[in-house]
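Protein folds are increasingly written down as discrete tokens. With that in mind, we are printing a sequence and the tokens encoding its fold.
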Amino acid sequence: MTVLTDHFADLADGPVNGFVEFWRPDVGPDTDGIGSTTSDRVVVPVVDGDLTSPDLDPGPARVMLRFGGWSPPRDIVIPDSDDPVQLTPLFTQFEVQPPAVVSQAWLAAAAAGVARDLAVAAGASVAASAAAAAASASAAAASAAEAVDVVAAGLPNATTSAKGGVKISGDLGGTWDAVTVPGLAAKAAAVHSHALADIVGLVAALDARQTTAARGVANGYAPLDASGLIPSTHLPSYVDDVLEYASLASLPASGATGQIYVALDTGRIYRWSGSAYVEISPSPGSTDAVPEGSTNRYYTDARAQAANASALAAKATDTAVVHLAGTETITGAKTFSVPPTVPAPSASGHAARKQDVDVKVGSDGSVVTLVKVTQAAYDALGAGRPSSTWYGIVG
């Protein structure tokens, strides 16, 4: 399957719009095996000069271009390619492509060819019209025969005309019914008229149209201005609901509800209240100029603190609590439910840990005192030495 692409432009290098038609004179099976073939006729639009065809089966094909008129058909062979292929170079397979500089003339020649074809078709139409005229003449001859019969029947003042009709001169001279003279039933003798409905096809054609008197009036049709648009005066107000005027003074004496009026000299906008123009307030630019409502109220520190007062009442003052870090002095008696953990004492006044106390207590649990003395001083104490004192002999 292959996609054909190309770009078409005029002599000024401007893109053109049109159509390109592809068809297969002999549609055969797919080249890639069993399956469906592309349509034997595909018309692809050219938009802004660009052409991109759908997937086409490779093989012989015929192409026609239409840019104002159909060009003569060209035979090409669509290659089998996975990548898009440019169309116009394929034309050189069977014919010489005109140079780019005369492409406009080439298009004109193609248009002339189309005009020739149209002229041939018009000739055929003329021939058909001639045949219809012959049939009409035959019908007229038959009508003439009927007219002669009418005259022969004794219609007063009636003769046959050169075209086969009945020529009446003077008064009909009486009253005639449909049996004697078809179509003249209930007609006055001195007057011959036809109802509008008697003219075949004319009433239906006229009923399908409106007169120019119905333009721009109720139950008629809307007119168009010089730009081909419907004037705003013939549109509902919601279609053109913003109207601009030079100033407030130039606004209509009576406005319309649902419309907005702009005074260009001040930039102010108004609406019609039914009796006067009321200015629509612009944005004040700051909430300071907008009054506070009863439900959505403005924020203040006092309102925020009042809203949190009950929650804050159960909280301790920061200066009345012990913090996890920092130097602080705690007063008053404190009772601990579990033993506190303290670091090893290194100075007077530090809390002693259990292991610090154990080295000062005897095996029986009694507290002992360690005294350093010389041997002579120890001997001098004799038996009166207290048992709660431990002596260390030095020197």
The mean pLDDT is 74. Residues 353-395 form one domain. The two ends are 117 Å apart (CA to CA).
